[in-house]
Amino acid sequence: MNRKDIAIVAVLVVLLMAWPMIDREIARRFYPERFAPPAEQADEVGASPTAVGPAATEPPVIQSPESPPPSEGAATGDVEEPPSADPERRFTLRNGRAEYTFSSRGGALVEVRLLEYPETIARESPPVRFDFSVTPALEWRGVPGAGTAYDFSGTLSEDGRSLRLERVTASGLRLLRSIELNDAFSLHIREEWTNTGSAPLTVERPRLSFGTLRNLPGETLMSGQTFLGVDTLSPGGESVRYWGREFLGMFARDQKESGLPRPRPELRRSLPEGGRTLEWAAVKNKYFAQILRPEGGAEAVDAVLRRTVTESEIQDPGFRPRVEIAEIAAETRFPNRVLEPLATASREMEFYLGPKKYRELRRLAFHQSDVMEFRRMPAIAKLLLNTLNGLYAAIPNYGIAIILLTIVIRIVFWPITRKGAQSMKRMQEIQPLVAEIRTRYKDNPQRQQKEIMALYKEHKVNPIGGCLPLLIQIPVFIALFDVLGSAIELRFARFLWIRDLSEPENLLAGMIPVVGSLNLLPLIMTVTQIWQQKLTPQAGDPSQQKMMLFMPVIMLVFFYKFASGLVLYWTTSQVLMILSQLYQRSTLRRKPSVVTP
After folding, report:
1. For 65-103, how does the pLDDT look when each residue is reduced to its tens digit (9 = 90+)?
2. Which of 268, 484, 494, 536 is least buried, going by the fewest C-beta atoms within 10 A?
3. How far apart are the C-alpha atoms of 99 and 165, rounded to whole Å?
4. Lowest-confidence pick of 62-76, 150-164, 501-515, 557-571
């Protein structure tokens, strides 16, 4: 492989790593219909109740006037019932790691506080708090007399770990909900529905809600990744379906089909399609997830998507907005439930609301840990994450843990790296012979190629051996990209001048033209790449060598906004490669040349 071939391979590698950004920023904008499900599979059924408003520093989210709210289900023999006049009462379950607050109104979850995770990077920051008071989680919708307009009686246990909620509707439907909080972030829920009347009751299409999620203030999304999403798992051995990447296409296709001048502010979609049941459904943001796994599965999940609406869009009717998902909610839909007089039906459910932390999620059944979304290299990603956490347990600093992880990876691949360097050295030594063959057979490309391959064989040179050190890093880099995009471990992890390894450094924010802020690690990485190129044995003509000098600049552009932890890994890897090449250079100098005079 000559220098031109190596340059082509290098460009393809860069494009491979940059494809998530290209896919999101370019392909999805010009071909939205390719990323949205077919029309018959995306059933819009209306808008959901208003969600918690966005932070004051972010653009407002408005409701869609075009989409009426879905009609509530009905129960046979239903008696119209006025809303409860009793004052709201709240009950909080605690286990030392989290607090889950339920309201007597609808027996729903209205607030969650995760005590181990600060909301901001400030040292005195309060814990992460999810306010579901406007759109409660675990609220029954489509069950007359059971929503947040109606009051449940409640009994909290003395240890604050279990709660009993009960209500009898005007139709004679007795709802009993027992909730237990385990030692982690999971609630075990058992419900009993009893028909206390003398006539059969049918509850049509009841729906159980998730609380609305948005990314927390101050979070930066890595290019090419969509963190607000809905995941579903259907029975039958299928893998988890990740819907987040399809949401932008849904907005674009809906706009095209409706003929509206701009995308709707809100869409509602039924997932999955084709009548498949669900083992579980999840709503998640960058670092946290809600996962509902009902016993016996569910019929579907209705996802409610709300995009960001800017002030420019509100003031200028002709403004063409860029669609960005601002918040997401969902409702799990169940089949009709029929209760004969005095009959009781029960269902158990597991509800997880906590961090996207693999150590916590792997305890849950039915592949719920797959919400981590290690899609491309799952085995390598899990191995890297477990190794990283193991190193952190020994030295409690994730920056040092990343450096040690990089050293471990380089040691594992040292034999291949060494052979690659030797191959590049031999390739450099036989370049005069290669140039002679090309001159001799310049009018016969087939003979030229045959003679060159024979030369490689004679001198035992592998033409692609020099590329192996770079190629073997690609799966590791892709897996680490997924790990840093989903795992909560690096959130607010400090190292040297870096305040958060899960984010770009963002030094002098807002003071640097064009790029907005100063990120030192990508600049250091670029310097190490230039140095490493100078140490690499050169082959090919000078014009090809000059072309390769642009590679560090290309990598700088792609890495500049990446998470600091990822750039730290790549920079450390480059430094170790430089040390390796310096050592091998001194070793190879003492060996005789493979080319005879």
Report:
1. 333 344 444 555 556 677 888 889 999 999 989 999 999
2. 494
3. 17
4. 62-76
Listed residue (331, 222, 148, 80) closest to 558, CA to CA: 222
| Residues 6+ away with beta carbon under 8 Å from 479 | 374, 376, 377, 380, 381, 384
pLDDT (tens digit per residue) in 230-285: 999 988 767 888 888 888 888 888 888 888 888 888 889 888 755 678 899 999 99
The pTM (predicted TM-score) of the whole model is 0.78
* Residue whose C-alpha is closest to residue 221's, from 510, 559, 562: 562
Give the whole-angstrom CA distance, residue 356 versus residue 486: 7
Short-list 571, 550, 54, 485, CA closest to 311: 54
> 290 — phi, psi (to 5°)?
-110, 130
CA dihedral defined by 407, 410, 414, 420, rounded to 10 degrees? Answer: -140
For residue 330, give Cα distances in angstroms to 38, 296, 353, 505: 20, 19, 14, 34
Question: Which pLDDT band, with edges at 50, 70 and 90, does 64 fall under?
Answer: very low
The two beta strands, 109-118 and 516-518, are unpaired
Side chain identity, residue 318:
G
Burial of 433 (0-12, 13-18, 19+ CB in 10 A): middle
CA distance 307 to 326: 5
CB 117 within 8 A of CB 91: no
Of 284-293, 327-336, 450-459, where does mean pLDDT reach its minimum?
A: 450-459
Give residue 128's pLDDT.
93
* CA distance linking residue 297 with residue 157, whole number of Å: 29
